[in-house]
Amino acid sequence: MENMELKERIGNLTDEALIDLLRQRNSYEPIAVQFAIEEAIKRGVLQSKADLDLAQFAVSEKSTKSIFPHLTTALQFSKVFSSLTRMLCLIAVVPLVLGLLELTENNSNEAAFLLLTGGSWLTLSVLLARQKKAVFAYALIGVLVAALGYMALQKMTFSYLQLADWVVIAVGILLIAYVLFYLAVLVNRYQAKK
Fold first, then answer.
1. How far apart are CA 93 and CA 109, in angstroms?
2. Does residue 79 share a domain with residue 49?
3. How many structural domains compose the chain?
4. Among 3-17, 56-70, 129-143, 171-185, which stretch is predicted with the lowest mean pLDDT?
5. What is the value of pTM for the model shown?
6. Which residues cross the membrane (predicted)?
7. Regarding predicted confidence, which is higher, 83 or 149?
8. Angle between helices 30-43 and 15-23 in degrees, nearest 10
């Protein structure tokens, strides 16, 4: 049953995705590669299995290890990029909701800060998702730094927070920063391949 599902998924790939799979064949299970070869021959992408020796189907070299992993296919880029940008849009909900709560408590300065930060974050995230330009990732990093700077300048003590809370907050901020830098790297790699 699994093999039939795999064969169907491979049959639904575009020619470009099928060629990418063949170029990355050392990274796939032999059965998936066999199905891809059969599909490529059926479509006329390959004349025979011997065509895999041609330069256009040469196995792509594995990239060196990096803090920002390399994505080898356009499909991988599309899926990872979409997932990360959706996550960024969801992050905007936090300051927006907190800003609305601050409005109900008549804390207009904090409310304005949170609403402006959340609105800017959401706008830049949507622009990044749609236009795929690294400048928006860098602008989001700027918003993150500005928000942290504002909090420090306002001496927001959050005295009710414990050490463990601060550790979770710090890890969250570092993860968001990593995602933003990774998105910038992905977009730059994507633009370089065009």
1. 19
2. no
3. 2
4. 56-70
5. 0.67
6. 80-99, 111-128, 135-154, 166-187
7. 83
8. 140
